[in-house]
Fold:
Amino acid sequence: KIKVTKPLVKQSNSFAIVIDNVTYDKVGDDVRAYRDALEADGLSTYIICGAWENPDQVKAQIKKVYAKAKNFEGVVFIGDVPYASVQNAQHMTTAFKMNEERFPIEETAVTSDRFYDDLNLEFEFIKRDSINPLRYYYKLSENSPQSLNPTFYSGRIHYPEQMGGDKYKEISRYLRKVVAERRRLERLDCVVTYAGA
Structure:
């Protein structure tokens, strides 16, 4: 069910692309081109592909790669990778405050990929969402650290179904755009100005 493709190039830093099987089947050529562009930029890049059953399964695979990769610095989730909505975590946000006892979990849980990228935090599974099959509810454990200190950075490439159209075509188009931008030769890389007297 899960396949990990090792980097093609050994670099001093590592990165991972996490993707679901269906999305990878549809846009695999673009994902591999994206991987090649990342490796050309100096990141040994793993591709972790699976028929994901829950966020814990995804996190376990990331932790395995993190443990053996050299200077693992980040991960990107592409397509339909499950995500965690967390109770007891409103203090992780800048302004969101809602009474968790008065309102349903669907409204009060904080959706956050800190579930994946902050390996210091501890979570307890609550339930899977009844409407959105990618959404899972967890509780930030009382025994967990209560401040954020991500182990590595993370990002998502996900096309919202509410936008309509073919999500795979849109993800493919975005990846091609990213690869083209990374290949574009920049003449000016850094500018320092001073306007004071």
Q: What stands out?
A: The CA atoms of residues 16 and 103 lie 37 Å apart. The chain is about 30% helix and 25% strand. Helices lie at 21-40, 55-68, 105-108, 114-117, 167-183.
